[in-house]
Amino acid sequence: MRQIRENIWYVTYSELGKPFEKGPVKVDGLGTIFLDIADVRYINQHRELGYEPAFFVSRSEAMNGWMVVVARQETSLVPPYVRP
Question: What pTM value is reported for the model?
Fold first, then answer.
């Protein structure tokens, strides 16, 4: 994990402890990061391709100081999501 800007951190899937479901994830040195269902889908999709998922997170006042995902690092290998 590394700080990118004043309130933005880059965190990899391994640094998150390899979560597999939505909800709060505690990260040493950063606090609690909240992952939603879209973050879990992103994790599963990228792991299947052999790519380690990575997130950009920021502290949210609306979430009582928890960190939330503000962006996900994408690879050009991911096909567009198609709704069934």
Answer: 0.80
